[in-house]
Amino acid sequence: MDEVARGKNRNKSKIRARVEHVFAVVKRLWGFTKVRYRGLAKNANRAFVALALTNVYLSRRRLMAQVRP
Predict the structure, then answer these.
(1) Where along the sequence do coiled-coil regions lie (predicted)?
(2) Domain limits, the chain
(3) pLDDT digits over 10-26, tens only?
């Protein structure tokens, strides 16, 4: 593999790792492994809320550092 391809691959893997970590938190921490049939709108709403909470959960140290002096 040449150096350009390795750089592209490394960049993709960094992005993939960050995205997959978010989904792992949603699935493991909040039990979003199986979705009951509630309708598309309700399932989508539940998924969006879970992903938003995951973003807050994963950045909690940075957010609390801004609150504490």
Answers:
(1) none
(2) 3-67
(3) 999 999 988 888 888 88
